């Protein structure tokens, strides 16, 4: 019997950089679907060459929704996402999408919701590897005591995003995205 190997063609990656009230955001698409949103100096940010060639075309709707979010006009994103991670990471990221705008959850609450009450540390690690910040709202997760714990984009940004969403962000989100 002959052995056959099936290979998946390499994914086509494209990226663009847009301004935001929280600094430049690098958007990455894999085969035309948003797969990453990185802030400058973000923990777990891949090297620039992993983002593919510059091309703003795949990002029109994502840019429009981000602009509406920062203007205070959008509270729920409706975008197709291509999230590359382990099954556990993807389950955590799916749980993040359920946290309503302006609300927070603890790592322990997320672990409970996933049916893994002792996995708050694992939830935290998966949360930290979220490749699509802001849109998959990992900034809405806080420590059990209500403290702001680690955030890949930096605690200052996390605090500002939470203040913006709770209505206490001043003019932070009103700046144009472009």
From TrEMBL:
Where does this chain mainly localize? cytoplasm
UniProt cross-references to HAMAP family, sorted A to Z: OGT (MF_00772)
CDD domains linked: ATase
PANTHER family per the UniProt record, alphabetical? METHYLATED-DNA--PROTEIN-CYSTEINE METHYLTRANSFERASE
Q: Which reaction does it catalyse?
A: a 4-O-methyl-thymidine in DNA + L-cysteinyl-[protein] = a thymidine in DNA + S-methyl-L-cysteinyl-[protein]; a 6-O-methyl-2'-deoxyguanosine in DNA + L-cysteinyl-[protein] = S-methyl-L-cysteinyl-[protein] + a 2'-deoxyguanosine in DNA
| Active-site annotation | 138 (nucleophile)
User: Can you name the source organism?
Assistant: Streptomyces durocortorensis
InterPro entries listed in its UniProt record: MethylDNA_cys_MeTrfase_AS, MethylDNA_cys_MeTrfase_DNA-bd, MethylDNA_cys_MeTrfase_DNAb, MethylG_MeTrfase_N, MGMT, MGMT_N_sf, WH-like_DNA-bd_sf
Family, as annotated: Belongs to the MGMT family.
Question: Main EC class of this protein?
Answer: transferase
Provide this UniProt record's keywords sorted from A to Z. Cytoplasm, DNA damage, DNA repair, Methyltransferase, Transferase
Q: What is its EC number?
A: 2.1.1.63
What Gene Ontology terms describe what this protein does at the molecular function level?
methylated-DNA-[protein]-cysteine S-methyltransferase activity
Where do the Methylated-DNA-[protein]-cysteine S-methyltransferase DNA binding domain residues begin and end? 87-166
**Which segments constitute the Methylguanine DNA methyltransferase ribonuclease-like domain?**
14-81
Tell me which Gene Ontology terms the entry assigns under biological process: methylation
What is the designated name of this protein?
Methylated-DNA--protein-cysteine methyltransferase
Miscellaneous comment text of the record = This enzyme catalyzes only one turnover and therefore is not strictly catalytic. According to one definition, an enzyme is a biocatalyst that acts repeatedly and over many reaction cycles.
The answer to whether UniProt assigns keyword Transcription to this entry is: no
DNA repair as UniProt keyword: yes
Q: Where is this chain's protein located in or outside the cell? A: Cytoplasm
Its biological function? Involved in the cellular defense against the biological effects of O6-methylguanine (O6-MeG) and O4-methylthymine (O4-MeT) in DNA. Repairs the methylated nucleobase in DNA by stoichiometrically transferring the methyl group to a cysteine residue in the enzyme. This is a suicide reaction: the enzyme is irreversibly inactivated.
